[in-house]
Amino acid sequence: MIRLEDVTLFVRSAALGSFSRAAREVNLLPGQVSAAIQRLERELDRRLFARSTRSLRLTAEGEKYLPYAQEMLALMQAGADSLQSHEDALSGELKIALPSDIGRNILLPLITDFCRDHPALSVRLSLSDQISDVFRDPVDIAIRYGKLDDSSYVALPLAEDNRRVMVASPAYLDQHGRPEQLEDLAQHHCLPFVMGGHVYDKWSFPQEGMRRQITVKSRLLCDDAEVARRWAIAGMGIAYKSWIDVCEDIQQGRLEIVLPQLPGESTPLHLICPHRKQFSAAIRALHGVLRTHLRAITAQL
Question: What is the pLDDT of residue 131?
Answer without folding.
Answer: 62
